[in-house]
Amino acid sequence: MKLDKSQKHFKLRLGLAKLRPMTSLIDREIIAGSDAIVPHNENWVKMYLDQGHRVSFDGGRVIALRGMDFRGRPMWFVRREDHRYGYHSLESDPLAATEEAQAAWSLRRAVRQNWDEVERTASRLIARQEKFSVTLDDARNSALCTAGIEGFLEQTGLTGITGIPGWLAAILMRTVDQQVGFVIYAAAERVRRKSDDEFALPPLA
Description:
By secondary structure, the protein is α+β, with helices and mostly antiparallel strands. It is built from eight helices and seven strands; from the N terminus they run ααβββββααβααβαα.
């Protein structure tokens, strides 16, 4: 039997409530219908968050909240008090999820320090003064989370693609989500490394 929308969402909420440790079946039902579980939509990931299922790190400055996206996948949503946005991790362990988030934030900081070059690269791509493709692997190697990448592709009608022209990525960066710039940066670095390898001198005998 096909579930209607309300039944589907209650099933998701109940599935999330079941992830709480040491919780009885009755309590899970109560939690699923309570305001402890809230809808959340950030960085292209539509999900539910269980505000009562959290783990704190770094003296409470970093919090991992248990969540479940609308596909029914459990994840951790990691927040840092001095960051505007959180990070979605598919890791099952909150510590591993937090470490993944910290690594991504560090990479984002490094890229932002060179953001002027990202903007110049985007301009050259749009003007066709520079040409290279931007691939799904570039996205995976960027500072963006897997769930966010998948959500972006799905909601922009790009599901199933493995790559797009650089000029299109630059337009998406300028008109849809500036974070595509992180993917452009990863693609440009890939192209640069390939060029360096091609022109590298052979090793001495």
